[in-house]
Structures are given as structure tokens and as C-alpha cells.
Amino acid sequence: MSDNTPQVGVWSEVGKLRRVMVCPPGLAHDRLTPESADELLYDDVLWTQQARRDHFDFVTKMEDRGVEVLDLGDLLADVVADKKARDWLLDRKITDDQVGAGVAKEVRPWLDEMPAANLAELLIGGIPFHEVPKEIAGPFTEAFGEMSHTGFVIKPLPNTQFMRDNSSWIFQGVTLNPMYWPARRQETLLTTAVYKFHKAFAGAEYSVWLGDPEGEPHDYGAMTLEGGDVMPIGKGTVLIGMGERSSRQAIAGVAQNLFKAGAAERVIIAVLPRSRAAMHLDTVFTFCNTDVLTAFAPVIDNARAISLRPDEKAPAGMRVEVENKGLVEVVGDALGVNFTVVETAGDVYGIQREQWNDANNVVALEPGVVVGYDRNTLTNTALRKAGIEVITIDAGELGRGRGGGRCMTCPILRDPAY
User: Fold this and answer.
1) Residues in a beta bridge with 305
2) Which of 51, 102, 136, 365 could form an S-S bond across to 110 if both were Cys, CB 3.0 to 4.6 Å?
């Protein structure tokens, strides 16, 4: 990337994707067990080696289309190689609140001296009590370790596989997301450290629409936001799903900050059911081209839309309007487009199976070119008939955490589409 090329900024859902961040399966998934899978939001354990091979294929197919792919683990290793950055991160990660009084003081000197690549792997993969070296473990680490032979000093973060969620780039800014489930909340700190310290983001000018760029602990109350719900669709409009993971409080906060900065003219809220099958907007609705969407009709046909717009005379500096049109029509009117909607394909059973397996969770690499899972044969065929090039990747292992191509990517730099 040349010195004059912008480093950050996401201006659409389907414009040319230039830079993206991912995190392949790894040590965190080796720590995943049938007992812990539910707490860590997986439906099953992964065959990690195969999942890594399939993820490598995914990355290669993006790179073949000219996308610069950044790996969270590699970025994090670069960050913690710098003492100042390592101290910043460990000061916020190895705390009495997160690790426990006594344990934090015992393990911190060990982590201070650990090789950068090893530390980065453990920050994502977790540190079991039994893997703390005996010469390091003090009485607190030993005592609590004896109580649980599978327990962790710090828990693994396998959902970093789904990099879409812990931060989201909206135009020339980013949200550092307070996430819904406790199992995912520590992901945001790692990403925040990368944005703050890594040379890939050095000198980049951007706003923070939600969250703390200093990574300090906060009580966000009822504010929760995840990137699977966030879609900067263009023409000054942002579409955000409000369902299981993203709350009205967080969405209103993002809208306020966007409007105060003059960065957006409208935020459209898609009101979703609170269900695991539709945990994020992008599990039931994604963009495939400038005029083509894919959607799970049983949810999207019944989704209501609420618009927020800046208004200095209104409470909170914005006005609210419940739309009397369907979500697709509201989005089309905002962009001046009459969308073709490719619905999840199959009979009454097949559409549920394909949606569950992320048929509608595709990521656009450029207008009319998307990456999706191979197993969704009926919906992929319907997309191809609508003129979409569907590049497929293997779903057998990667899909066990319920997330497809869009979920596994955090776009950093994407062109406008309108």
C-alpha cells in the first residue's frame, strides 16, 4: 500500500474491498471442548487443522482478488514486541478483575518476558492453569489450578474467528464494540491495541463512534453492539440491526456521534427477532451487488425499520421515525436503488437449513462478486442466476461457530459503491 493510499475507511457494503482483517482458527479452538462449547458460543468442537486449511483457502481467494489480508495474530505479535504496547495491553488484560488478585501478580512477570509470538498466541488462545510453569506459579495459581484441572488463568477467545463483530468501520471511523456475551468481550481490547499501536494503522486519521480507544474498563450499561449488525451502506446512510446482540441504546449512541460529526445523514434500524438463527442482521441479509441483496424472507419480510436523522431541535439532537414500508424498500429508497432480492432457496425445510448454514452471510469482494459456503448449493445457484459470481469455501469446520464469509472478515478499507 503506497504512502498516499488511505489506510482506513469503509464506505459501502459492496464497493471494492481493499483491506480486511481476519483471525484463523488456532489454539483457542484446540481448547474448545464439548463441555465449554456452549459457553463459548459454538455448536460443536472444530477439527482445527482442517479449519485452518479451509481458512487459508478463504484468505488465498481474497488475496487473488487483490485484497490485502491482515491476520490478527500476526498484528498482535508485532504489537507486543514493543515494550510500551505490551505494557499497555497487559495493564488492561492481567488485572485483579479479569485474572484475580494474587494470580495476576504471579503471572505478570512471566508474560512481561515471554517471546512476542508466544504471548500473542496465548492472548487469543488462553492460558490454562496447568500450563503456567511450576517455577512461575505461586500459591494462588497453584491453589486455583488444583480446583479445576481444565480451568484458565485467561480464557480462550475462539470467536476471534468472526472478526466482523468486535469492531466495525463506519465511513472514516470505527466502533470499538461492547459485546453482548461475556465470552466475547475481551476480544475488543486486542483489536483496540492493534489499532492504537500497529504500524499498519500508524498515522491513520479516524473517529471513534463508540467505545474507548484507550481500552479502559467501562460499564456500558445496556449498550451492546456487534459488527454483524453494522452496515455502512453509503450515501450518508448506515443500516444497523437491533436484535439479540445490538441494543437500541448502543445504536442511538452511535447515531448521535455520527450526526454530531456530520459523518452521516441517516441511521436505519432493522428491528430483528431475538434468536440465535438471526443473531445478527448479516445472518439474514447481505449485499451482493449495487442492486442485488440476499435475504432470509421469513425474517426480513417481517422486519420493521426505524429511521434516525439529525435534528438540533429534537431531543438528543436527532429525530426518530417508524417507517411504514418494508426494510428492503426503505433501504432501496435511501440509496435510490430498486433491489433484486435473492431469497434463501429451497423448500420449507431447505431454506431453514441453508440459512442456518449462513447462505445469506456472504462477503462482497467487489460489486457482483461474493464469497460464501459451498454447502448452500440452492442459494448459491439462485445468486448465480441473478448474475452474482459466488466464490465458494468449505463450510464443514468453519461453520460450526455459526458464521460465514461476512462474519469472518472485518473490512478496514472499502470503496464507495454509489
Assistant:
1) 270
2) 136
